Amino acid sequence: MMGGRSWDEWIDEYSESHQHPINQLTHKFGIPMIILSILLVIPSFFIGGLWRFSLGLFVFGWILQFIGHYFEGKPPEFMKDYRFLFVGARWWMKKTFG
């Protein structure tokens, strides 16, 4: 799946397009919002109204991503390779937890 590249190589390439402080800030909040929204999909089938919260997190998380890339002046990496959708979560974990 990773095309013969290590996680570090993917993260390094991802990091090159995430240098602007505003972009980093919007990703700091947007990425976990998107991840949480995806994790809430199954519970949303059983808990009334939770799907609205999940959908709101998902949409607002993506809005933050695109705002950040506006300031960065570069398109999101996943537009050139879908695998960067997974790399973004790993990048966030590395930036947050080391």
Please give a structural write-up.
The protein is mainly α and 98 residues long. The protein has one domain (20-97). It has helices at residues 7-16, 21-39, 41-44, 50-72, 84-97. Helix 2 (21-39) crosses helix 5 (84-97). It is globular and about 40 Å long.
Low-confidence parts lasting 5 or more residues at pLDDT below 50?
Answer: none
Q: Which class best fits the helix and strand makeup?
A: mainly alpha
Number of individual domains: 1
Overall average residue pLDDT? 92
Order of secondary-structure elements: HHHHH
- DSSP, total strands: 0
What does the overall shape look like? Answer: globular
Q: How do the strands and helices of this protein lay out in sequence?
A:
Elements: H1 7-16, H2 21-39, H3 41-44, H4 50-72, H5 84-97
Helix pairs in contact: 1-5, 2-4, 2-5
Short description:
With 98 residues, the protein is mostly helical. The chain has helices at 7-16, 21-39, 41-44, 50-72, 84-97.
Output the keywords.
98 residues, mainly alpha, globular
